[in-house]
Design a protein that fits this description.
mainly alpha; 6 helices; 85% helix
């Protein structure tokens, strides 16, 4: 079949096949996070170094490696800016203060849980050690 008789939509379908594949791969890697991108880059370097280099360049150019840190900075900036409405800003400040208090209380609760768990594990260790100590002394006395 020559190109003059080829239908225009079939030409478009064939020419867009490759970018669709790359877009699907990109979406698949994005869904799995930074680790998937890093693994793909390393595998690219291992099997054929230009692929790894191309992935590294793409990740740097598209800011895939720095996206999370930039988003968290943006959220902090958004939380600190004024909306222009005093009532809403007061409500937002009070809500943020309450959430920070809850976070502090929760972190203190977790610290108490960890301390209690550590103490229980240490007490168990000491009990096990105390119960095995007479057995050790008995074996040494018999020898």
């Amino acid at each position: 079949m020559n190109t003059a008789t080829m239908h225009p939509t079939s030409q478009m379908r064939h020419s867009h096949h490759q970018p669709v594949f790359f877009a699907r791969c990109e979406n698949w890697l994005d869904a799995r996070g930074k680790g998937a991108w890093i693994a793909a880059m390393i595998i690219g370097f291992v099997f054929f170094w230009p692929i790894g280099l191309a992935l590294l360049a793409y990740m740097t150019w598209s800011k895939k490696m720095f996206r999370k840190s930039c988003e968290s900075t943006r959220h902090i900036h958004t939380a600190m800016t004024s909306s222009g409405n005093r009532a809403f800003d007061a409500y937002k400040a009070e809500t943020l203060r309450r959430l920070e208090d809850e976070q502090t209380n929760f972190e203190a609760f977790l610290a108490r849980l960890r301390d209690a768990k550590d103490k229980a594990e240490f007490d168990q260790f000491m009990d096990d050690r105390a119960s095995s100590a007479p057995e050790t002394e008995d074996t040494e006395a018999k020898a």
